[in-house]
Amino acid sequence: MSLNPVQFGKTVIDQFGRYLRTTFPIADERLAGQVADVLRHRIAGRPLLYRGPYIYLNRPFEPGRTLAELRAEPKLNLHPALPGVFPYETLHKHQELALRTINEGRHALIATGTGSGKTESFLLPILNYCLHLRDAGAPAGVVAVIVYPMNALVNDQLERLRFILAGTRLTFGRYTGETPREAGQMEQLDQSRDYTEAERAAYANGAAHFGSAGLPLPWEECYERPAIVARKPRLLLTNYSQLEYLLLRDQDVTLFRGAPLRFLVMDEVHTYTGELGSEVACLIRRLRHVAGKQPHEVICIGTSATVSETAPPSPAGRGAGGEGLFTTHRFAHRLFGVPEASLDLIEEHYRVPRPPDHLYTPCSGQRPGAAGARARRRLGRPAPRRARPASPGTAPGRPGIVRSDPQPQPFPL
Question: Which of 193-197, 299-303, 381-385, 406-410 has the lowest mean pLDDT?
Fold first, then answer.
C-alpha cells in the first residue's frame, strides 16, 4: 500500500496533539479552550508544535571490501568460518574501517546514522575473536559485554543473535530484569545446529516463536539466570542498571571475576551524559577492575547516531578533518577512561554521485519543441494553448489572486 506523506504527516501531528491533551488534561473548560486555541495558533505563519514535513533522501553508502577480500589480508587474521556466520558478503566502507580499527586493538566511537549497520560494525570483529578462541579450546568466559540503554534494544539484538550464532558453538545470553530465574521454561536444542529454512520461514510468517516446539532456542543461548552463571557465555547482553547489580551480587560477580573480557560495547553512547554519565564511567572502571584488566586490555566501543557532524583528525586518520567533534572525542575518552590517542572516530562514507557516461544532447540546429510539434502532427493532435504571462506577484493562471510573497510557500498541514 502506498503512503501519502502529507496525510501521514497530518495524522502524526493530530495524534501528538491528542497525546498532549490527554496526558496533561485541564479541568477548567475555558482554560482548555484557550490552550487548544494556542496550539492551533500560528506565529508569523509557522505553527508552534511542529515543523515540516521534511523530505530526507538517503545517500548510498560507499561500499567497502568483501569478506573474501578481507580474509585474503594476513594482517586481519579473519577466521575462515566468518563469511558463513556473518549475514552480509560486502561491507560498507565505515564497517570495514571499524573492523580494521577494532582488530588493531584500538578503541572506537562509531558515529554513523540510523540504519547504517553500526551493530555489524562491532559484531564482526567480536565474532572473529570468539571463533579463534573456540578453535583454540579456550575455557568458557565472558569476552564481550554489550550494554544497551533499554531492554527493548536488548531483546531486538537477542533475536538477531539467535539466527546468526545458531550452529556456531559461540554462547551468548541476555541478563536483564526479564531473564527468568528458573530453568525449563522454554524449548531448547540439545545440540548445536543451524536453523533450517522451514524454521526460518515459520518465524518470518509468524507461525512459530522462539522457545516453542516448532522453533526451539539455539543450543548456544543461555536463557535463564542459572544457565548464564554456569555456562559463562562469550557474549553477554545487558543494560547499565543490570550490570550494576551483577557487579554487586556474589552469585553473579563470578561472571566477571577473572573473565577473559576483551570487548565492552556501549550502544547509544550519547545517552550517558551528566549524572548518569558519571555513574556509567565509574561502572566501566569497576568492571575492568573486577575482571583484572587494564584499560588497554579491554577494547571500548561506543555507537551513536546522534553526535556532532564533524570530527577532529584521529591519530590513525580515520576521523573527519577539522576541529568539530573535539567535545565528542573527549567525552568518549573520559567515559571509557582510555587515552585520547587510542580512540578513533568512525564516520559514514557516502558514495560520490557521478554523472552517467552518456548524457542526452538534443540535435543541433533544432528549435525547442520542434520534435514535439512533428509528433503532434503525425498523431493529429492540436498544439497546446499558451498561457498568458502573469504579472509580478500574481498567482499564475489565477487572475485576481495576489501573493504577498511571490516566492512559493510550503503546503501547510
Answer: 406-410
* Burial class of residue 136, CB neighbours in 10 A (0-12, 13-18, 19+): exposed
Q: How many CB atoms lie within 10 A of CB 39?
A: 14
**Nearest in space to 311 (alpha carbons), one of 283, 260, 345:** 345
Comparing CA positions, the residue from 337, 323, 332, 344 lying closest to residue 273 is 332
Looking at the fold, whether 241 and 132 belong to one and the same domain comes out as: yes
Question: pLDDT digits over 376-405, tens only?
Answer: 565 565 655 555 555 444 444 443 333 334
Q: What pLDDT, on the 0 to 100 scale, is given for residue 313?
A: 45
- Domain assignment present for 72: yes
Q: Under a CB-based contact definition with an 8 Å cutoff, are residues 304 and 269 in contact?
A: yes
Q: Please answer whether residues 221 and 194 qualify as being in contact, where contact means their C-beta atoms are separated by less than 8 angstroms.
A: no
Residues 253, 334: one domain? Answer: yes
Helix then strand count (H, E) for the chain reads 14, 12
> 148 - beta bridge partners?
239
pTM for this model (two decimals): 0.74
* One domain, residues 161 and 234: yes
Domain that holds residue 28: 5-47
Q: Is residue 151 part of a domain?
A: yes
